[in-house]
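Here's what a typical entry looks like (Aminopeptidase N):
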Amino acid sequence: MALSRSARWTAVATAAASFLAVAASSAPTQGAPGIGDTYFPNLGNGGFDARHYALDVAYDPDTDRLDGRTTLTARATESLSSFDLDLQKLDVTRVEVNGRRADFTRDGDELHITPHGVLREHRTFTVTVTYGGVPEALSGPIVFGSDYGWMKTPDGVFVACEPNAASTWFPSSDHPSDKATYDIRIKAPKGLTGVSNGRLVSTYDKGGSTYTHWRESRPMATYLATATIGKFDVKTGRTPSGIPIYVAIDPVLANSNTVDVYAVTAAATDYWSRVFGPYPFEETGAIVDDMPEAGFSLEVQSKPAYSAVRNETTIVHELAHQWFGDSVSVERWKDIWLNEGFATYAQWLWAEHQGTRSAHDSFLAGYDSRPADSSFWQTVVADPQRDTMFASAVYQRGAMTLQALRERIGDRAFFKLLPAWTHLHRYGNADTGQFIRLAEKVSGQQLDDLFHKWLYTAGKPAL
């Protein structure tokens, strides 16, 4: 059948419009300098999805100098004429994209990269950055008023980067919504040990240096990466259920042990595997360093980092984060209660497991000890704001929310909900709305009033 002249013109016009639409959609753009997180608008980067980091770092404790080479493998989510990485203060000497030298400029903490040729949408590419300098720890009110990030110790460095300090030591898309796998190679003076995430692939001495290669084969947020270096007594083995374990403790702290870090780590890893679902990583463990200036611990993926020997409660808290925070990470930083409220509630569950106090009694102790006019009750847990994102209310009222939920829906539904949550979002990201919807689905109840009262409203909730 032949087309009429008008029909032919219509077909031609339709095809031309379709071609122009496709051309416009694939026109190259500049990748955004940030993902738009309201707490850290310029962290993370637009236009690509990070897939794998190969980090090579060499550190000299005598000069505090770091020399690094990072190769990021990423997938373009739009056609890119240029893109950014996050890197704070360190000097960049060379950038290559797909093996070819690329132009770059600096604008504050943004490294702006212009490759030779467009990076087409959906295509995988590599960017290699060679850099160096003296990393600077961050400070301010966010992390309990403590320094955090790359922190010099008497014999090396303690690296704990939540929320925004990973880019103080390697160029990255520094936001938890852009997770990737890692190979981390550390060069340090002979006699020191470099400890990182995942499992140890190799270690050897050459000349006056010790080289270690670690591989984290499960997706990881940038702030959970570490390259802690120092003198460590290392103990390895398996938990009673068979999970590999690696515990490194600074020998300076040998006589200050009030808790068996290895034994508690093994026991808690196995217990949480029964309560929260299968352990999500290849290895569990701990890094215990002598860093008194850092008044915190961090849920470093696969090996929580402690700035001193901590008590049993802290250890079980950081290990619970392997599920809540590490495997299931926040989509935006305002949802941080999904990390800290859950890990704090895990402390209550551990006390219940040990037979020392029920979670209900822990709830009442926190509730009754704070009068209605306490500033504690003025934090809106679902959006606590940047400088107070680690306020005690995020931890404690977040845990209270979970106990209130447990008492509303009952133990059977509650302990079905926790592993369902970690399974549904395993190695991914999630937000508060998704948790509420899953809680309603699992329980068969409408729960808006409960979460509105405990998460979205200032003031002391009535029981």
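Residues 27-133+166-217 form a domain with the Immunoglobulin-like fold (CATH 2.60.40.1730).

More examples are in the samples folder.
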